[in-house]
Amino acid sequence: MVVFDCERMKYPNTGLAVFCDNVAAGLVRRKASVRSSLGFFVPAEFKGKWGNEVSYRPVRVTDKLYMPCGKNVKVWHLAHQFTPYIPPAHVKTVLTVHDLNFLYEKPVRKHLRYLMSLQRHVNRADHIVTISESTKRDLLDNIDLKGRHVEVIYNGLNHFDGDMVPPVSKPDGKFLFSVGTVLPKKNFHVLPALLADNDYRLIIAGNKSPYEKRIMEEAAKIGVEDRVSVIGPVTDAVKYWYIKNCSAFLFPSVAEGFGLPVVEAMYYQKPVFLSDRTSLPEIGRNYVFYFDHDFDPDVMREQFRTGMEQFANGRVDLEQMKRHALSFSWDRTARRYIEIYNELLF
Question: Chain-centre distance of CA 334, in angstroms?
Answer without folding.
Answer: 16
